[in-house]
From TrEMBL:
The chain crosses the membrane at residues 25-46, 58-80, 100-119, 124-142, 148-166. It comes from the Bacteria. This is Bacitracin ABC transporter permease. Residues 55-163 form the Phosphatidic acid phosphatase type 2/haloperoxidase domain. GO terms for cellular component: plasma membrane. It comes from Alkalihalobacillus trypoxylicola. Keywords: Membrane, Transmembrane, Transmembrane helix. InterPro entries: PAP2/HPO, PAP2/HPO_sf, UPP_Pase. GO terms for molecular function: undecaprenyl-diphosphatase activity. The keyword Cytoplasm does not apply.
Amino acid sequence: MREINESWFRYINHLGIEYPFLNNIFVFFAEYTVLFLALFVIFLWFKRTSEGRKKVIVGVLAFLFAYVTGHLVGFFHFNYQPFIEMENVNQLIEKRANNSFPSDHTILFFSFCVSFWLFHKRNVFWLVLAVLGGASRIGVGVHYPFDVIVGATIAIIYALIFYYVVPKSFLIQKSLTYYENLEKKIWRSSKSRNNKDIDL
């Protein structure tokens, strides 16, 4: 199993050595698409549509549960990052040495991206982004393929669970309604205060 893991890692990671232009692409997807994802989640929430907020809730819950599960799984298997354990690794970003199994970044990518995709299955953009995000962690030399595969699997399972649970959950719907009513009151209060300031 370890031989397969290292062999797959070498193949993907050394693409950046054979084709140097790929290095910037690996770094971009490994480091900066997280920012894009965060900005999109904020946009989706404050767009104030019911479906958009349900997407965010599914993604957040999937990530939280997958993250905790990933750390529990990490108690049963430990491996350092490839750049610690192997020679001639094409390491493109700095990372502290610790247990890289499973990949937290991959859990984040797949939790949100798969959750978004489930609401619009014809749009494969989110699946492609998740795969590129996971593969890029191998490309930059900080994770093995099995770190990514296990992280993705955990995230997909929870995304599927919460995709079916959230829309039917009375508690979540009640909480969302309460939040939206509170949001409307704050919005009206702020608008009223601004109007008074203009009148003065």
